[in-house]
Amino acid sequence: MQETRKTALVVSGGGAKGAFAVGVLKYIFSTYRNSGWFAITGGTSTGALISPMAALMAAPDPMGIQALRTLIRSYTTVDTSDILNKKNIFELVELPDCLYESHPLNHLIHRHLRTEWFDWLKRPEAPYCYVVYTNYKNGEKVIVSPKDRDMTRKRFIKAILASASVPVVMEATIIDHTVCYDGGVRDLLPFGPAIDLGAETIVPIFLDPEKFEESQSRFNRMDKILLRTLDIMKDETRRNDYDMATLINIGIQSKQELFDIFGKDPSALDRLNKVFNKVEYASLYGPDRRLIKIIKGLMPDQNLAEDSLIFDPVQMRQWMNWGEQKACEILTESPFL
Question: How many angstroms from the chain centroid is the CA of residue 180?
């Protein structure tokens, strides 16, 4: 048998559009699960909801198949009221921090991430799963995993909820007495942890098309203006995240090419090692950087929705099918070999 690569899954934010990513995972599971699975899974916002379930799909059945079914059900049967409670005018006057309460989403996460499933994610044989949220007190992104020391199910669920909470639209999640929101504010497509963990192949799933599409909205409502502003900011963040990962990938390939050419000359090899071992180059060439390949193209061909917080089961089933079709088109061989 071929040796499996250390492959990472990274899922961007995108609310209900996460159904597209679920379609991609459904195809990968049914087509390539026998050849391996992801050693690392990570995500932001809706990607943070998907990442733990994707990691659980590595577990022996029935847990693995149950995790897939839970993920499919989550993105094809719920509507907006199952995720959010819209505040009435009196609630907005009393506490004008957000338009929606996220109690239903919190309940869903608790129900779906079972205690025994979280316990399995902590085990050594489980993939390294991580989620990203933003600490609004210091402005920093926070990366957490079930494998973190002293991590509890309750705290990890709070991190998932924070990551999925769009500022102003949704209420904040309070972690350690601090207001926390969407990880996409800082890191929409969190490649960094996967690269730091030694991923050799990364499978990124974008939930928006490559080209940022024009909107037909007249932008005559505050919520429309806010959502468009967030979309523009997140598009910029996503492109920066992807460009940095690509730069690291090119750097690693260039380094390997130089070692292949000059590696037989002891003097040249010594000089190369001195250059690449410089502290200031660690972010590009550090010893944990092993990124060989980034699989491109796992994104929808068109914008799926202008408002990603509208959960329509009919639309989401269609998006899931599109994700399956796109995965079939792009992944012509196992990403794990």
Answer: 17
